Structure formats: structure tokens, C-alpha cells
Amino acid sequence: MPLALLALAVVAFGIGTTEFATMGLLPQIADGIGVSVPHAGNLVSAYALGVVVGAPVLTGIGARVPHKRLLLLLSGLFVVGNIASALAPNFGLLFAARFLAGLPHGALFGVGAVVASRLVAPERAARAVSRMFLGLTVANIVGVPAGTALGQQLGWRFAYCAVAVIGLIALASLAFFVPDQPRGRESGIRHELRAMGNRQVAIGLATAVVGFGGFFAVYSYLVPMLTNLTGISDASTTLVLALYGVGMTLGTLIAGPLTDRALRPTLYAGLALLAAALVTFYFTVHSTVPALVTVTFIGAMGSFITTPVQMLLMAKAKNAPTMAAASNHSAFNLANAGGAWLGGLAISAGWGWASPNLVGAALAVAGLGLAFTGGFMDQGSRRSEVSASGRGTMPARASVSAVGEEHGG
Questions:
Q1: Please, is 47 exposed, middle or buried when counting C-beta atoms within 10 Å of its C-beta (0-12, 13-18, 19+)?
Q2: Which residue of 30, 155, 303, 321 shows the fewest CB atoms closer than 10 Å?
Q3: What are the angstrom distances between the C-alpha of 204 and each of 7, 170, 207?
């Protein structure tokens, strides 16, 4: 793995750690700033709101900034946000600091994905992007448990300090190892927004919101499911979440090569298998070993979908992929909020702790329907281009687009 990809993976590791460690430290944070645990839970929403707002806004502001310089600026903002979180004296300032820390999240992943895809040959672009995403999955195995343990032993502020240090390491790694990638002549906010107007980009983002909503409908309530239905103790849930992270890592490793070979079939298979796994978990959640096996598989399928969705958006945005790639992470956070809300409605309606699995399966199937819709529209568009050309082959631009979709770049 080139050192530049390793530097991007370190960035993803820091982002994954700060995003999820807050959830494990809510009791300590609530006690430290004098609010209730549910009230402290709004800090998670503050970070997610920062991601949703920051991905398109910061990407648009930096549309003419060379990619490497933009990565450094965004990483610097990430460090500042986490230092501010560690120093915040009250809930209001901590809320603002978490929002600030979330702002560069989507833009970092979006710009990083574009940079990673251009570090290698086109037929290996999806594998390069998946290597960057490995940092996020490893964070669930190592970073989040370590950050949670550090916060519980020394105080929650030390967890944010540790993330800031990771951010500084990432900043230095990017500065040393990532090569300069100058923007093209047509770069700019208008060019990026025109690419966002592509119907395939819109369908891809909708697929991410709905399909990943199924994943988050279950992930949001995984701990209470395991403690109330599987019978796993509170002390053991951290290990189970680490197992979930192992599944995510395996899914990411598998998705890269498959996406390079056949993008849309990989996406279809991932959503279908996610739906099947969620239905299975509805029945296996009551038995420890089958439940743990299913949880690992759900983690694998959740991360398996990430790479083909990211590569599809970049392919369809063509020469202006950065905002589309960044907006994908806004879509993930909308999926997080929407999936958690719908899963909570099912529980509140008295359908039981396992009911979010059925809600999640329905959302995954709906996401699969959107993905198929995009595929049918794309085939129809290419047939029209072939017919208009008056020959048996596609025009050059159409051929390039088709190859880009097939190979994920």
C-alpha cells in the first residue's frame, strides 16, 4: 500500500474514532458538564449536523484549491475542532465544538477518495479508495474502544485530546506522503454543482440515504438488542462492537477488488445480502453464537456497500467528482439519523427490541430498488447514445463513461 494511501487511512482512523467514541462516553460527558445523558446525546447529533452541512459547503468553498492543500486545511480544522471539544467548559460550547469537528468529515473523505483514486491505475481505483476506508473500519476495532477506555479512566477530555494528536499525525503524513494533484482548468463551484445535477448522482445519493438507513436502524440499537435479547452483559458489548468492526474491515477489503471488476453488481449484491442478514438477525438475536456470527456479517455488508456507492458517484459526476464524493458522507449521516428514528419508532410502537431488524431490511430492499432504477436508467441512456451515433459502437465519451462505471473509476 503506497504511503500516501496509508496517510489517508490515518485521517479516516481519526475521523472514525472521534465520531463514535462520543457515544461510549456519554455518561462521563454528562457528569462532567452537568447535564443528563439524553441531553448529552445531542452532542452526537451536533457532529452529524456538522458533517451534513460541511461536506457540500467546504467542498464548494475549496473547489479551486489544489487537493493536497485542501486536505491539509481540512485536517487542521479537524484538529482544532477536537481541541476545542477537549477544552469546552459547558454544554453550549461543547455542542459548538462537536459541530466544528464534524464540518471537515465529509469533505475529507470526499477529497481523500478522489486523491486515492488518482494515485493508482484506473482499474485499481476502487481498491485504493477501499484502503482509505480501512482506517474507518479499524477505528471501530481499535480507536473507539481505546478512546472509550481512555475517557473512562482519565476523563472524557483526554479522549478528544488523543484524537487531536491522531489528527496532527495525519496532517504530517499528508504533508510528507501525498503528492500534489493540481485542479483542472474547469474546476470551481459552478462546475461541481453542474455535476451534482446529474440524475444518476441524485439516485446514488438517495440509494445511500435509504440503503444505509437500514444498516443504521439496527446499529443504533445493537447494544440494547444484545443485552435484552441475546443476554450479553454490558461489559461484553465493547468486544461485540469490536467484532462488528472486524466484519466491517473484511467487507471493505472484499469490496474494493469486486467494485473494480463490476461496480453495479457489487452494489446490488451488497444491498440484497444486507437485507437478508437483517432478517436473519431478527431470528438469531436470541442465541449467542448465531447472533454474533450474524452481527459480524451485518458489519461486513454495511461497509461492503460503501465503496461501490462512493465509486458510482465519482464516476457519474465525471470531471467534477469531489462534491459528489463528499456529499455521499452527508447522505450517510442522514441515513444514520433517519434509520435510528425509524428503528426507534418500531420499538416505541411495542414491536419489540428486534423490530429494527425488519425496518432495516425494508430500507435495504428500498435502497436496492433505487439502485436498480439507476441501473435501468443508465442502460436506457447508453442505448439512446448508441442509436444516435448511427453505428454499432458508442461514441467515445459514452464509452469512457461505461468503462468508468464497470471498473469503478
A1: buried
A2: 155
A3: 28, 30, 5
Q: Ramachandran region of residue 318, left (φ > 0), alpha (ψ -120 to 50) or beta?
A: left
Q: Which three cell numbers stand for residue 29?
A: 460527558
Position of cell 494511501?
5
Q: How many helices (H) and strands (E) does the chain have?
A: 18, 0
Instruction: Work out the angle at residue 97's Cα, subtended by the Cα atoms of residues 116 and 337, and round it to the nearest 5 degrees.
Output: 70
pLDDT for the residue numbered 380: 67
3-class DSSP state of 113: helix
The separation between the first and the last C-alpha atoms of the chain, rounded to the nearest angstrom, is 18
C-alpha cell at 382: 447508453
Query: What are the pLDDT digits (tens) for 103-126?
Result: 999 899 889 988 998 888 888 899
Residues 278 and 357 sit within 8 Å (Cβ to Cβ): yes
Determine contact, residues 106/327, Cβ cutoff 8 Å.
yes
pLDDT score of 399: 35
Residue type (1 letter), 374: G
Residues 6 or more apart from 291 whose CB is under 8 A from it?
A: 226, 230, 281, 284, 285
Give this prediction's pTM.
0.80
Instruction: Report the alpha-carbon distance of residue 86 to residue 97 in Å, rounded.
Output: 9
- Quickly list DSSP for 201-222: HHHHHHHHHHHHHHHHHHHTTH
Poorest-confidence range of 41-50, 152-161, 198-207, 344-353?
A: 41-50
Nearest-angstrom CA–CA distance, 12 and 9: 5
Return the SS3 of 69: helix
- Separation between Cα atoms, residue 382 and residue 394, nearest integer Å: 8
Radius of gyration of the chain (CA): 21
